[in-house]
Structure formats: structure tokens, C-alpha cells
Amino acid sequence: MTDLLQANLYNYSLIFLRIGSIFMLMPGFSASYVNTQVRLILALAMTIILQPIIAPQLPAQPDSFALELQYMLNEISIGIFLGIIMQILFFALNFAGAIASQAIGFANAQLFDPAFQGQSMLIESFLSVVAITFIFVTDIHHLMISALIDSYRLFAAARPLPWNDLANHLAQTMNQSFNFGFKLGAPFIAFTVIFYSCMGLISRLMPQLNIFFLSLPIQIFLGIGLLFLTVPVIITIFFRYYNEGLQFFTE
Predict the structure, then answer these.
(1) What is the pLDDT of residue 250?
(2) pLDDT exceeds cutoff 80 at 248
(3) Is 95:123 a contact under the CB 8 Å cutoff?
């Protein structure tokens, strides 16, 4: 009975370390308005549910404490890696929101962004809240949990971690998120170029006109109109990209 209890405790501990690390960084769950105790309770509940599925894939409890500690550190590292990848995928939308804020003229209007627990531009915070809402409405968090489960197929608990592959994938994901965020913000970049070109032309044709006093209200009005037109398309394209990024771990 003692050996069985120790084996079950060992299995629960390994599973909880990976799941808990992911829940601390997963978009939506890692927001500041989600209490730390709530995240740990959710991770513990997921551990209890998934233990019968994942336990056969776990290595036997080693006799050496150093080897057992190595297994635990590997689980924490894998959980942190998966959580960071999910955050980097989410970064593409924040970058597009920053571009939109600059184009509309809201660069200095900053709010607290609960998704990243810091100050961010107004449009950036708005898109983050919309995206997190759609993550739970459209059940994309189920795909994140599925990626968590399938990670045991990619990263077995008893094997050494492929640090080079993890670093390469992290760098590639960051590069892809930056490029994709730039593409999402392309309408606002085009709007900025066209708007300031027109304002410069008007300033040359009518030097007596205070173009800076006139341009700001027009910029805000047209920019918000463009935002209302493009938000549905931006959110739809972003979630398609987010799903593709997560499917790398579920295939």
C-alpha cells in the first residue's frame, strides 16, 4: 500500500508540475484577474482528470533523488516552454494593436492590459480583451489543453530535452508572430501613409491652414471607422493563425 501510494503521488506530482507551469503562462488563465490559487486549483483538477490517461506514459519512479529531481525540472521546463509559445502566438495580435493605436493617434492613451499584466496602448488592450473572450467562447482553450496532453507524445518525461530544437522553435515562432502581427496591422500602416500624404499635400497647397489642429480629429474619426471595419477580419485571421500554431503540438 505504501509503495502504491508513493507511485501515485509521484505520478500526480510529475503531471501537476507540467500542467501547473502551463496554466501559469497560458493566455486567459495567466491574466492578472485570475487568482493564483484559482490557477493552481484548475491545474490540480486537470491533473486528477488526466492522470489515468497520462500515467502509463510516465517513467517508473527512480531510486535516485537526483534523477527524480531531473524529471521534475524537465516537466517544469516543458510546461514553461509551451506556455511561452502560446504567449508568443498571442503577441501577434498585440503587435497589430500597437500599430493600430499609433495610426489612429492613441499611442499615448494607455490602459492596464490584464492579458500581459502591464500598461499597453488602448487599441492593444481592446484587441487583447476581445481575443481572450473569443478564446473561451469558441472553445479554443480546449485546443490548448489538447496541445498540453499531446505534449507527452512529443516530450516524454524520461527523455532528455532537445534544447536546440526548443530554442529554434521558439525563435521561429517569435519571428512568425512578428511578421504576422505586421500583416494584421497592414491596413493601418496603409492608412497612415495615405493620411499623412494627404495632410502634407493640403499643407503645401494651403500654408495658412493649421493642418495639425485640423488633422487630429479627422485622423481619430477615420481611424476608429477603419478599426470597426477591420476588427472582425483581424480576429478571424488571428485565430486561424493561433489554431495552426497550436496544431503543431497536436499532430
Answers:
(1) 62
(2) no
(3) no
If you count them, how many residues does the chain have?
251
Q: State the DSSP H helix or E strand holding residue 121, giving kind and residue range, or none if neither.
A: strand 118-121
| Ordered alpha helix ranges (H), the chain | 2-25, 36-54, 65-104, 122-137, 140-154, 163-184, 186-205, 211-250
User: Domain containing 139: what range?
Assistant: 2-250
Grid coordinates belonging to 142: 480546449
Using DSSP's 3-state secondary structure scheme, residue 113 falls into: strand
Residue 62: pLDDT above 80? no
C-alpha cell of residue 37: 490559487
User: Facing residues of 113 across strands?
Assistant: 118
Query: DSSP character for 30?
Result: S
Which grid cell is 174? 517569435
**Among residues 100, 130, 96, 129, which one has the least CA distance to residue 114?**
129
Written as nine digits, the cell of 194 is: 495615405
This prediction has a pTM of 0.81
Closest CA to 13 of 131, 108, 54, 246: 54
Task: Report the domain count for the chain.
Answer: 1
Task: For residue 148, give the C-alpha cell.
Answer: 498540453
Q: Which residues on neighbouring strands pair with residue 110, listed in sequence order?
A: 121
Which residues have C-beta within 8 Å of that of residue 90, sequence separation ≥ 6?
A: 27, 115, 128, 131, 242
Distance of alpha carbon 181 from alpha carbon 83, whole angstroms: 19
The residue that leads in pLDDT, 164 or 32, is 164
Grid cell for residue 12: 500526480
Strand partners, 112: 119
